[in-house]
Structure prediction request, 223 residues.
Amino acid sequence: MDGNGRWAKNRGLPRIKGHEQGADAVRECVEGCGDLKIEFLTLYAFSAENWGRPKTEVLALMHLLERFLKEKTPELLEKNVRLQAIGRLTDLPDACQRQLHKSIERTAGNNGLTLILALSYGSRLEIIDGIKSLLRQIEEGHIDSAMIDVEMFSKHLYTRYYPDPDLLIRTSGELRLSNFLLWQLSYTEMYVTTKLWPDFTKDDLFAAVEEFGKRQRRYGGVL
Ligand code: FPP
Prediction:
């Protein structure tokens, strides 16, 4: 969800105002996914690297996340959205963790869109955690290293319960992955828009999905 800072700067506002507007865009996007009957939406809300931002911004983002979860959970329930999260969640402030787990539990019975928030998420960390988890299984004698393949490794990632993404939407014109789902995006279609995240609307989502529909996916093979 890139471009919050620029959105605010363009208006002479503090960066957090851009994040607040970005939280409103989340609502619009979730609604759009519901309209399209999309099953999974993963939002890169806070990266492992984002902890390096100024303390005031980090704190404001954590408060915003906590407030968002508290205020929006009834709406998630109403829209049949199941909330999930990936990342090093124990790095989040306690109050944030508590609210996150509360919202996850309250929405656990929903069977519409699964909304996955990537929080304190870094793909390289995830891969390292996956390797450690595999090594533990080998040490405990549950598996043999010769058994490791793509499918097995995928089961040791934070995303083990979800399919690989079909479409990656990158806002604000950035042409990089920024340590997001590096393993899972291997055959994902990419869509880049110059729209800043706070300006991203349902129609922008629909345009991205329409463009996705025109792609021919070959997965390294031939058609
Ligand atoms: C990147 O834009 C955005 C973030 C680091 C935070 C994203 C957070 C939200 C949209 C709101 C909170 C999330 C939820 C789910 C309630 P940037 O700050 O790097 O923008 P810039 O590149 O223009 O500076």
Summary: The two ends are 33 Å apart (CA to CA). The chain has a mean pLDDT of 98.
